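WARN no homologs supplied; continuing
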Amino acid sequence: MKKKVFVFFPDGVGLRNFAFTDFKEIGENMGYDIHYWNNTVFSLKDNLGFNEVIIENHQIHPLTPLYSRARKRIELNVSKKKFNDEVYTTYKFPFNYNGLKNTFKSIFTKFLIGLYNSEKGIDRIRKKINGLERSTSKYAYCKVQLQKHKPDLVFCTTQRSTQSISALLAAQDLGIPTVAFVYSWDNVPKAMQVVETDYYFVWSDLMKQQVLQYYPFVKDEHVFVTGTPQFEPHFNSSLKENREVFFEQYNLDSNKKYICYSGDDETTSPLDQYYLEDLANAVRNLNSKGYNLGIIYRKCPVDFTNRYDAIIEANKDIIEVLDPIWKQVGTMWNEVLPAKEDFKMLYNVCEHSVFVTNVCSSTVFDFVAHNKACIYYNYEQPQLKKGIRDIGQNYKYVHFRSMPSKNSAVFCTDKNDLENLVQKIIDGKLSNVEEGLKWFEIVAGKAPTKASENIWKAIKNCIKN
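OK structure emitted
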């Protein structure tokens, strides 16, 4: 008899990995009965024809976000003390005192931090969160769904959503094994493990070591290294379009060589538009020396600002905008959902650009999978002033310590060096690809093309156990 697996989407961030790749097809070929347990506004049945069970009750306990916010800060405080490392302070967002409601939330969160600020306190606050979520109507609702459909396992596609807590608790209380997939390469050190599940699936040996380091209650044998489906499409050559077709489709000049500028969200890089301007100036200077270069600007899908507009308009002879094919279906960042067609677009942007440039993005791995270099900006802009976040702290984060060498990316530490670095890459005299591929293996694991298959094999082990 086929084992029934609920693939659980507490929000939209997992769609790209687990609905739009070959993940489902691979699982079905391995004999699983797959149902998508859907807490999002995106209908998997209407859009993709998948079996889905819709969670219509989205009501988490009103105190859960505050307790979760406090838990995260306490975990960062504990890590700072435990590892004697100031980096954990930089992961904290400032408290919000704008308006009475935000002021109350901030004061209450600070009270909780004072009350639970220790390793033992983390355990108590987690139990408190679980108690709050078990008291909700959503918990009871999800429990009824599970009793009706009787899955053999619930696979949660991200570990970082408070919307998943009650549903996973309901499964555990019914004796159904639960798995959380650690969603992103930087999530573990940043204290973004919101859920407690029976098993955890991670990208790499590095990420497994981090889970065990930061969460000592997790047992070694309960963490499976699987890789991530995130990069699988880059190894699918059927997505490749020839250069002429791709350029014609997106109105690109076939006589130009294009550099991809991959935009960042406003939190990570609040002055990101000025790095695009610096690149445009470098390209303009090189073009005056006989080069014929252009820029493909691909924005961050969850950036809703107009901060780039003036710079794009002023350089429209150089910059072509290729927006990612994502759809906004709500007001929150995690309600901007990718379309399957974006895989093809991203594949060909990587394939037909000479290299990529950005601020600390994981697109370094997208491009290195195509043997393309990456320039990381790491200098301050003159527009930096008090209250604006300096991008330099990004490169001090724990996940950047995974680089095997300083040559894992091409770092531009001075605006005046940018033109020379661009020229060297264009001329084939500079590249980070060799070291970047080593970094990619450290972060994403040794078998990036086998991630979906490895996840299903690991699910089989979890159901057996």
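The domain at 233-444 is CATH 3.40.50.2000 (Rossmann fold).
OK
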